[in-house]
Write a structure and sequence with these properties.
Distance between the termini: 54 Å
Largest sheet: 5 strands, antiparallel
Strand content: 15-25%
Number of helices: 3
Shape: globular
CATH architecture: 2-Layer Sandwich
Radius of gyration: 23 Å
Helix content: 10-25%
Number of strands: 5
Structural class: alpha+beta
Order of helices and strands: HEEEEHEH
Length: about 140
């Protein structure tokens, strides 16, 4: 009987306490993310804005942006303006399949999966394209 009380009493003390809240996920780390070096595309018009290859066109005025494929991106142009150093964000990793396929065919496309490839490798490669590259400026918050 004493043994049961000794085991049961501490367990009863834990019941009235609510579960400890979890820390929220930083919006800069939410969803699937890939950082890439890709050519800049587009003519610079409203219909075809200058943007990184694979970047979706902006939604038409009054139209809700799509949550399929790449849902957000941020980029910096390379020093020569021919390439974009870009972070793409998607809800599902399959949205990056076209980028990975192009990487296999096109030497101008370099892609790194965040969390899989090392930050040092990414910074070293991006540093070849942009002097004083700052990885912290290449982050996008996505709710």
């Amino acid at each position: 009987m004493k043994k049961q009380l000794l085991v049961g009493f501490p367990l009863l003390l834990l019941l009235p306490f609510p579960a400890l809240p979890q820390q929220p996920v930083n919006l800069r780390d939410a969803h699937e993310r890939m950082v890439c070096i890709v050519p800049m595309v587009g003519r610079g018009t409203d219909a075809d804005p200058r943007r990184p290859m694979f970047a979706p066109l902006p939604a038409a005025r009054g139209e809700a942006p799509s949550r399929d494929g790449i849902i957000a991106y941020t980029f910096q142009e390379s020093d020569d303006g021919r390439y974009a150093l870009v972070e793409f964000v998607a809800l599902d990793r399959s949205a990056f399949a076209p980028i990975l396929e192009e990487k296999g065919r096109n030497v101008e496309v370099k892609a790194f999966v965040k969390g899989k490839d090392s930050k040092a490798d990414i910074v070293a490669e991006f540093g070849k394209m942009k002097r004083n590259f700052d990885a912290e400026r290449l982050r996008v918050n996505v709710p």
